[in-house]
């Protein structure tokens, strides 16, 4: 059996992983200036969903970032998102390194 056919069969059995991050800059109107300076920060909320369509398993992760854009200065919120993405990348790289060894 050719290796590319074997790889396709393994990937179909194993499934596909897909991640979407939702970062929205909201438009807010505020009538009270005292409440306008309250900065709650960003929270990162991943939600995992497993879907099977025509025998193909899909592991979908949707990462929501409520609170992003609520502050006047979003540098800290942006850094939290970058840190999360770097941590995810490091985890995937470590997993792939273990699988190749």
TrEMBL record:
Which Pfam families does its entry note? Septin
Q: Which residues form the Septin-type G domain?
A: 1-101
Q: What is the lineage of its organism?
A: Eukaryota, Fungi, Dikarya, Basidiomycota, Agaricomycotina
Q: What is the protein's species of origin? A: Rhodocollybia butyracea
Task: Kindly provide the name given to this protein in its UniProt entry.
Answer: Septin-domain-containing protein
**The organism's place on the tree of life at top rank:** Eukaryota
Q: Which regions form coiled coils?
A: none
Q: Which InterPro entries match?
A: G_SEPTIN_dom, P-loop_NTPase
- Molecular function via GO: GTP binding
